Amino acid sequence: MTEASHGPVTSRRSFLSKAGAGAGSLALLAGLNLQAGAQDNSPVIVGGPLPLTGPIAADGVEFKRGLEMAAEEINALGGVLGRPIQLAFEDTESKGDDVIISAGQRLVDKHNANVLISGYNLGSQTALQGVASGASLIYLHADTARAHTDLVSKEPDKYWSCFMYCPSELYYGFAYLDFVKHLETSGQLKLPNRKLALITGPITYSINIAKSIEGKAAEYGYELSLYETVQAPISEWGPTLAKLRENPPGLIVVTHFFPQDQAQFMIQFLTNPTDSLVYLQYGASLAAFRDIAGDASVGVLYATNIGVLQDEIGSNFTNAYLARNDQKASPNGGGQTYSALHLYAVAAALAGGPGVPYEEEQNRKIAARLKSMIFRCPMGVIRFDQTTQAALSYPVQTKDPSLGMSHIFSQIKNKAENGHIISPSPYDIAKFEKPAWMK
Q1: Which is the most buried residue in 58, 87, 124, 365, by most CB within 10 A?
Q2: DSSP H helical ranges for 247-359
Q3: How far apart are CA 91 and CA 60, in angstroms?
Q4: 369/91 Cα distance (integer angstroms)
Q5: How much of the chain is helix, strand and coil, in % rounded to 5?
Q6: Helix or strand (DSSP H, E) at 47
Q7: Torsion angle (degrees, nearest 10) of CA 318, 407, 207, 180
């Protein structure tokens, strides 16, 4: 499936005032296009191996929307050195490595993609790195996976073209513990006990986060009262809730991240809630969670290390994204691929143009540009670790918010709105409020 994205004709001044990306990066791309003139008019094929069907399709749809929006904006500025962006999509079906590899390979061999850009996929989360490495092609993704950082750091000569434009999932564990501890020490939260219940799922991402919390909980003064693994998808939470109600914890952490499953958890939890602070990993950041959970979503805490900030740049993007799609769209999902395509466009223009499959020399020039860039986007700042080629996290890996992607904690205040960022500074716009179900 291929589509051209040419966008409306508009003045650069008008466009820059309305676009959702950082005005500086857009102005840079526009300036490079003006200076260079058109290389030729052949399109730059951006391949999107996305989960467009299956249990994580809600995210896949947003990843597609993000690429479409970015392509329209870039084309309104003259493309990449005069060459228009054209999108090609292949469905990874929310399945494992065999389906993911086939989708990626079709984008390379059938569509002749100049670059591969995805949000996240399931499987081992190293499948598309193999496709990109074999084709000497730039691959940008947000799998949030230690598997990527291990792969690239151990074999840099093989995986030089692979970049994860968000931090690893391992930082979620102690970031959560730091956050809750701060709520307590600052007097914002008084827990009924020191018990912590962990509920995870079958996917490596969820397990890694749960294990990182389990391994550090005692250091923060918390006692693990439950470690439960559920299958996915899951709609009946009765057995798990029975265990929680039998031994009520002060903290409940659900790292299984499917938004529809999390929504059912909250609906069923609130029929007889325990006096517990509930944290839901990532899925609650999506509009699909609030749409299903409704009033049961209010008060929930969630975090993401790649979420749209609620500052001027982030708000401009959110407003434009919702206007382009619909009010139930999820900017946190679309913002990922949107930012990645803008990042690639600038890096390719600075490198002298896009590469093609199996053309190592030009793609290495683009990779070098990506590794050296500090790129401001609606999600914060993308700056790659030179060893792992994963985005650095603020405030976990850097204390400078201008040099890392913010690990944001949000709380849902209204079922009709995205959660409000309550940490970290300087991006917080609201205060933590004790959920209504807590005593």
Answers
A1: 87
A2: 259-269, 287-293, 312-324, 331-350
A3: 9
A4: 29
A5: 40, 20, 40
A6: strand 44-50
A7: -120
Cβ-contact 437, 431 below 8 angstroms: no
- Report how many helices (DSSP H) and strands (DSSP E) the chain contains, helices first: 14, 17
Task: Tokens for 323, please give them.
Answer: 């206007």
Burial 212-236 (b: 16+ CB within 10 A, else e): bbbeebeebebeebbebebeeebee
Domains (range + CATH), the chain:
2-168+309-393 (3.40.50.2300), 171-304+407-423 (3.40.50.2300)
Whether pTM > 0.85 for this model: the answer is yes
Sequence-distant (≥ 6) Cβ neighbours of residue 297 within 8 angstroms: 263, 266, 284, 289, 290, 412, 415
Q: How confident is the model over 302-327, as a mean pLDDT?
A: 95
Average pLDDT, the chain: 93
Beta-carbon contacts of 310 under 8 Å, excluding residues fewer than 6 positions away, are 318, 420, 421, 427, 429
- Phi then psi dihedrals of residue 221, to 5 deg: 90, 20
Tokens of 264: 């059912």
End-to-end CA distance of the chain: 53
DSSP structure string for 181-239: HHHHHTTS---S-SEEEEEE-SSHHHHHHHHHHHHHGGGGT-EEEEEEE--SS----HH
Between strands 420-423 and 408-411, the pairing is antiparallel
Cross-strand pairs, 281 = 303
Taking only the tens place, the pLDDT of each residue in 222-275 is 999 999 999 999 999 999 999 999 999 999 999 999 999 999 999 999 999 999
The Cα–Cα gap between 410 and 276 comes to: 17
* Cα 177 from Cα 212, distance rounded (Å): 10
Which of 266, 276, 220 is CA-nearest to residue 246? 276
Q: What is the pLDDT of residues 94-137, one digit of tens each?
A: 999 999 999 999 999 999 999 999 999 999 999 999 999 999 99
Indicate if the alpha-carbon torsion angle 359, 360, 362, 363 is positive or negative. Answer: positive
Q: How far is CA 323 from the centre of its chain?
A: 21
